Amino acid sequence: MIEFFYSIDKTLFYFCNQTLSNPVFDFIMPAITDWNQSLVGISLSILLIILLVLKGGKKGKVVVALLIPLIFLSDQVSSNLIKSLVARPRPCHIINGVRVLDNIHLLVPCGAGYSFPSSHAANNFAFATLIPYFYPRLKWFLFSYACLMGFSRISVGVHYPSDVIGGALLGVLCAIFIIVVYKFFNNLFSADVKGKEI
Prior knowledge:
- The chain is mainly α.
- The protein is built from seven helices and two strands.
- Helices cover 70% and strands 2% of the residues.
- A hairpin with a 2-residue loop joins strand 1 and strand 2 (98-99).
- It is globular.
């Protein structure tokens, strides 16, 4: 049964990584997949936090306060807990001189970490789940971006589709957990700041 699902995973990986590869994807996918580590991405993230704190009122401050434990939770659970337990090699890893999968269209450095789940997917889907609780109109934009980020991890050759799906589910669950905890304590101490849509 495991081999059956792995064969599906490999087929989907090759479809996304090779069949769909083209010069446009070769150009934009590496940029998208490392967006959070680029100067532009980091600068925009800092700007967003500043705007939420200074211009977002109580709701903006609550969002920033929740984002910190959320990203810490999703990143630590995915990177340090689940990846260590599952210990799945990435499709681009080389073990005993042999690459895990042949003929990978590898567009970025493979990375030393394990494959399952994708921490990029976990963090982005966590973000895309939390923010719309407070700003519902951003839901489709943020989930579209999270899906694009997840696809980019397969397109550049560093994750299987199941890694991305697993990371996405983990991120959503982490965000739901943070929201439930927030609502519990918020109901104890103050009025909900969900407020109006932007």
